[in-house]
Amino acid sequence: QVQLVESGGGLVQAGGSLRLSCAASGRIFAINTMGWYRQAPGKQRELVADIIRGGRTNYADSVKGRFTISTDNAMGTVYLQMNSLKPEDTARYYCNARDVFNPPRDFWGQGTQVTVSS
């Protein structure tokens, strides 16, 4: 099992920045991918960015050039630096970890709210 705890959300004006953190505990050695997803009211949860052990990253088109995902080498903590925030970035942000087993298992944090005012 992997436990995930997010922090760093809040209220920010458009154009501002926030940094989200997600601390993993438990079977960290089994984590292959960590990522951030978000869900706005009335919408489906969507991938924001993820990072594979080894460093390869992937971003949603809507956040490319504005958000940066990073992690420590042990995949114990994942960060999401969010710059140039827009009102449409308002959502609850969830940390995700996927392990290396077949089939892979997904673990989720409780989420942290990000609200961007115009």
Secondary structure: elements and pairs:
Layout: E1 2-7, E2 10-13, E3 18-26, E4 31-39, E5 46-52, E6 57-59, E7 67-71, E8 77-82, E9 91-99, E10 106-108, E11 112-117
Parallel strand pairs: 2-11
Antiparallel strand pairs: 1-3, 3-8, 4-5, 4-9, 5-6, 7-8, 9-10, 9-11
Q: Gist?
A:
Helices cover 0% and strands 57% of the residues. It has strands spanning 2-7, 10-13, 18-26, 31-39, 46-52, 57-59, 67-71, 77-82, 91-99, 106-108, 112-117. Strand 5 (46-52) and strand 6 form a beta hairpin.
The largest sheet is: 7 strands, mixed
Q: Count of DSSP helices?
A: 0
Helicity level: under 10%
Structural class: mainly beta
Average predicted confidence as pLDDT: 95
Proportion of β residues? over 45%
Low-confidence stretches: none
Give the N-to-C terminal Cα separation. Answer: 40 Å
Q: What's the shape? A: globular
| Rg estimate, integer Å | 14 Å
| Topology as a string of helices (H) and strands (E) | EEEEEEEEEEE
Beta-strand segment tally? 11
Overview features:
single chain; 118 residues; mainly beta; seven-stranded mixed beta sheet; four-stranded antiparallel beta sheet; 11 strands; globular
General description of the model:
The protein is mainly β. The protein is 0% helix and 57% strand. It has no helices and eleven strands. The protein has strands at 2-7, 10-13, 18-26, 31-39, 46-52, 57-59, 67-71, 77-82, 91-99, 106-108, 112-117. Strands 2, 4, 5, 6, 9, 10 and 11 form a seven-stranded mixed β-sheet that branches. A four-stranded antiparallel β-sheet has the order 1-3-8-7, with no helix packed on it. Strand 5 and strand 6 form a beta hairpin. The protein starts with a strand and ends with a strand.
